[in-house]
Design goal:
By secondary structure, the protein is α/β, with parallel strands linked by helices. It has nine helices and seven strands, in the order βαβαβαβαβαβααβαα.
C-alpha cells in the first residue's frame, strides 16, 4: 500500500514496550497518532517528544481497556474529534504467572477482557470504516505463546491463541477489501511485561532468550506495511514455531512448563 496524504494511527498500550517503539516508528514516517493507555502522564511526555521531533500531531486518550466499555468510549471520542483511524494497533495486554488453581480470578478476568474482548471490540468498531473506505491496516500483537499451551501461564497463552486465530480469520475475510490485518508474534521480549506478570525469575526470560524490543517493533512495522498476515520476529522463533507442528503435544506441554518454571537460585 502506498499511503497518500496524512494518515492517523491509533496505538493501544503506547506508554511502554512494543507499543511505545511502534509509536516512534509511525511518527518518524510522518503519521499522526492517537496514543492510548492507562498512564496519561507517560503518554503526554511521549506525545510532546514525538510532536517536537517529527512535527506530527499526537492526541492522548487515557483509557483502561480492561474495562470493555472503554472501547466504545474510545471510538466515540475519536469520532467526536473528527479523527479517522487509518491504522489500528492493538498492543495493550498483560500476563500472569502461576498454577491456575492458585492465581487471582479477578486479575485473569481483566486479562481476558483486555487481551481478547477489547481487542476484538476495537477491531470491529474501527474496521467497518476501513472497509467502507477500502483502505486501512490493523496490527494485532499476539505472541509465540499463541502456538502452544502454556502451563503456569494457562490463561495468557490461551488469550494469545485467540488473537492469532482471530487475526488470521479476519485477514482472510478481508481479502480484496483494501484492508490488511497483520498479527505480530514475538518471543520473550525485554519490556516491563516480565515484571508485571510476576516472572522475574522465570527461565523463559533468561538473557539469551530475550529479544530487543526495538527489533521486535521494527519487524512488526515492516511486515504490517508489506501486508503480511503473520509476523514472527527472529529466525530462531520462526524455526521453532514451524517445528511445533510436528512435535508431540505432550512433549510441547512438558517443555513449555520447564521453561516457565522459576530458575533455581545459585
Amino acid at each position: 500500500m502506498i499511503f497518500k496524504g496524512k494518515q492517523t494511527v491509533l496505538v493501544t498500550g503506547a506508554s511502554g514496550g512494543i507499543g511505545l517503539e511502534l509509536a516512534k516508528l509511525f511518527a518518524a514516517d510522518g503519521f499522526d497518532l492517537v496514543l492510548v493507555s492507562r498512564s496519561e502522564k507517560a503518554l503526554n511526555v511521549l506525545a510532546g517528544d514525538l510532536q517536537k521531533k517529527h512535527g506530527i500531531t499526537a492526541k492522548v486518550i487515557a483509557k483502561d481497556l480492561s474495562r470493555v466499555e472503554s472501547c466504545r468510549e474510545l471510538y466515540d471520542e475519536c469520532a467526536r474529534s473528527g479523527i479517522r483511524v487509518d491504522i489500528l494497533v492493538n498492543n495493550a495486554g498483560f500476563g500472569g504467572w502461576g498454577n491456575y488453581w492458585e492465581t487471582d480470578l479477578e486479575s485473569e478476568t481483566r486479562m481476558m477482557d483486555l487481551n481478547m474482548i477489547s481487542l476484538a471490540q476495537l477491531t470491529k468498531l474501527f474496521l467497518k470504516g476501513m472497509v467502507e473506505r477500502r483502505h486501512g491496516r490493523i496490527l494485532n500483537v499476539a505472541s509465540t505463546a499463541a502456538f502452544q499451551p502454556g502451563p503456569l501461564m494457562a490463561v495468557y497463552y490461551a488469550t494469545k491463541a485467540f488473537v492469532l486465530s482471530f487475526s488470521e480469520a479476519i485477514a482472510e475475510e478481508l481479502k480484496d477489501t483494501g484492508v490488511k490485518v497483520t498479527v505480530l508474534c514475538p518471543g520473550p521480549t525485554e519490556t516491563n511485561f516480565r515484571k508485571a506478570a510476576g516472572m522475574k525469575k522465570s527461565m523463559l526470560f533468561s538473557k539469551h532468550l530475550n529479544m530487543d524490543v526495538t527489533f521486535v517493533a521494527k519487524t512488526g512495522y515492516t511486515d504490517l506495511m508489506k501486508g503480511k498476515v503473520l509476523s514472527i520476529p527472529g529466525f530462531k522463533n520462526r524455526l521453532v514455531m514451524q517445528s511445533l507442528r510436528l512435535a508431540p503435544r505432550a512433549f510441547i506441554r512438558s517443555s513449555v512448563k520447564k521453561m516457565q518454571e522459576a530458575r533455581k537460585e545459585l
